[in-house]
């Protein structure tokens, strides 16, 4: 059974979208997120996690229980292989990392675009999870064409050549950009730039340029109150929170509170 890509549907209607991140390769996590009914999708941050092909299948199955489309964020080195595996497992969106040049955008596009006339893609017919119940070529192609295609803008060289990268991204049907302040600071050799006021100028340039090229900029935030500034800049797409950090914050709150109480006995 092919899960409808409700993330794509909402995106195409021009509506704001809200996602959340998860790093734990535990099948309870996407089902739990989906059961809230509050998120348009969840991003499995595979670049920072430990997983195999079976994990991706099981994560997609559990997300399907909660009617939750999944995005995967991939490490650049093996992105084509794992992007195709993820789509075959039932993921509905791919976020490609470390894009530096227009040619990198081409490579990302080839990985997930259908291998059919006039697309230039390398994604052929994969008899994986969506084909388990029934198989329709029309349905398979429609599913591939619904994939939400996102790229990271996170390198100094990318920001320096942002017009060329975004022009190619528009040509290749990129739906979203995602600003990456950590890698940007690292690639400039300015490790403290990420948390400084100076980084806002670069961030705002990426947002403005994305909007200029008709590509929606998504922003990652850790708290609801952080969204207002970005909304004022024209951002309508957010991904909020990381399961690992949410768990740590909750444990810290519980542990510190109870420890303080019992130490007073």
Task: Please characterize this protein's 3D structure.
The chain is of the alpha/beta class. It has one domain (6-263): TIM Barrel (Alpha-Beta Barrel). The chain has 12 helices and 8 strands. It has an 8-stranded parallel barrel, surrounded by 6 helices. Helix 11 (227-232) links the parallel strand 7 and strand 8. Helix 2 (28-36) packs parallel to helix 3 (53-65), helix 3 (53-65) packs parallel to helix 4 (79-89) and helix 4 (79-89) packs parallel to helix 5 (102-112). The longest helix is centred in the last third of the chain and has 21 residues, at 243-263. The radius of gyration is 19 Å and the shape is globular. 36% of the residues are buried. The model has no long low-confidence stretch (mean pLDDT 94).
User: Whole-number radius of gyration?
Assistant: 19 Å
Give the biggest sheet: 8 strands, parallel, barrel
CATH superfamily: Phosphoenolpyruvate-binding domains
Strand content: 15-25%
Query: What's the CATH topology name?
Result: TIM Barrel
Physical arrangement of strands within the biggest beta sheet? 1-2-3-4-5-6-7-8
> How many extended strands?
8
Count of helical regions: 12
Task: Give the rounded overall mean pLDDT.
Answer: 94
SSE string, helix = H, strand = E?
Answer: HEHEHEHEHHEHHEHHEHEH
First-residue to last-residue Cα separation = 58 Å
Q: What is the share of helical residues?
A: 40-55%
